[in-house]
Amino acid sequence: MSPASRTVLQRRTLDMSEPTRQRSGHGVFASHAMQRVLRIATEAAPSGIPVLITGESGTGKEVLARIIHDRSGRPRERFIPYNCTGTTCEIVDSQLFGHRRGSFTGASENAPGVIRSADGGTVLLDEIGELDARIQPKLLRMIENQEVHPVGQPRPSKVDVRILAATNADIDQMVRDKRFREDLFYRLNIIWIHIPPLRDHREDIAPLTTHFLRRYAGEQNKREIRMSGAAMGQLIERDWPGNVRQLANEIRRLVAFAKDGTVFTPDDLARSTASSGPPRSQNVAGARSARDKVTISADQPLPAAIEEVERALIIRVLLAVDGRRSAAAGRLGVSRKGLLLKRRRLNIDALLAGD
Ligand SMILES: Nc1ncnc2c1ncn2[C@@H]1O[C@H](COP(=O)(O)OP(=O)(O)OP(=O)(O)O)[C@@H](O)[C@H]1O
Ligand SMILES: [Mg+2]
């Protein structure tokens, strides 16, 4: 890397004492897209109506569900996540809706079930697409009537439970294919929040990295651990198929092997990734073309979308030319002064350096 690039990309390193931008209790929501996700969740929180949260694995669906619960005014401790990928229909039925003692072989005690245990609070039905077709009507009745019918109990009992559902499957398609009940789907998706994959909101990568550095350094009693600007630039460029979870794991692994005062370099990243297991086979051309694409969400105002494209292009070109500003300006077809102004307006050096 040239000395010039160091001035652009490494002049400033992450300062652990600096407050992480735009945090919300449990997480980081800095980009326009994630601010919007947080805003919808916050507005939906007090209503008590079901919310469907979709998004690829590791995008933060459970994080968002907890935020909705925490802002719903329901008792904090009564948030129960339940994974619907149960073994058998009978087990899922009794785990969710409870059973009476003696109602089937092995039912030696009364069991309230997840829904009644969360009475007054919230149940997150995770992997909702996997919910057995025979349980789906029972859940629909529970939502419509706010009552559960435990196995072996003559009459249903009233409950007051907020239902949140999450999935990384294409549940819309499952409904069209008749693999998921349409009536239940419409009950669950009164509010539908889709969390975009991390590669579509790269502005969050630097603040998330700062957040995880702070968290894992704190947990491991380490001090002054930072990311160099060049390393941060590389993190921003990666595609993160495992989304925020993958980024968190990467930072956790880096911090685990670091001493106090470490400033991570691109070499540290390369070593850490190499030690994270066998490389996944990947189509290099496909990966490159994915990296060359700038994805914007179609539901934002035009000026914000234009800024996102400008920011993404400038960061990519700066990294590609090792931070040489004249070369970057030439490639982008703007003057050096023009590039300087854009870097300032779009906060690009801060984004690359994390301050
Ligand atoms: N906005 C965020 N800010 C901070 N940390 C986050 C954020 N989103 C996700 N994470 C972290 O990433 C990890 C994965 O998040 P979470 O479990 O909510 O994802 P998920 O979408 O439910 O994944 P899966 O589909 O695999 O169940 C967790 O460690 C979580 O703390
Ligand atoms: Mg989850």
Could you tell me the CATH topology label of the largest domain. Helicase, Ruva Protein, domain 3
Q: How would you state the average pLDDT, rounded? A: 84
**Which molecules are bound in this entry?**
adenosine-5'-triphosphate, magnesium ion
Kindly, what is the distance between the CA atoms of the first and last residues, rounded to a whole number of angstroms? 22 Å
How much strand content do the residues show? 5-15%
Q: The biggest beta sheet, please?
A: 5 strands, parallel
Give me the side-by-side strand order of the main sheet: 4-5-8-3-9
Q: What integer value in Å does the Rg equal?
A: 24 Å
Secondary structural class: alpha/beta
Q: Which architecture of the largest domain per CATH?
A: Orthogonal Bundle
Q: How many strand elements?
A: 11
Annotation field: number of helices: 17
CATH class of the largest domain, named Mainly Alpha
Tally of separate domains:
2
Q: Ranges with pLDDT <50 over ≥5 residues?
A: 1-24, 279-290
Order of helices and strands: HEEHEHEHHEHEEEHHEHEHHEHHHHHH
Helical residues, percent: 40-55%
Shape: elongated
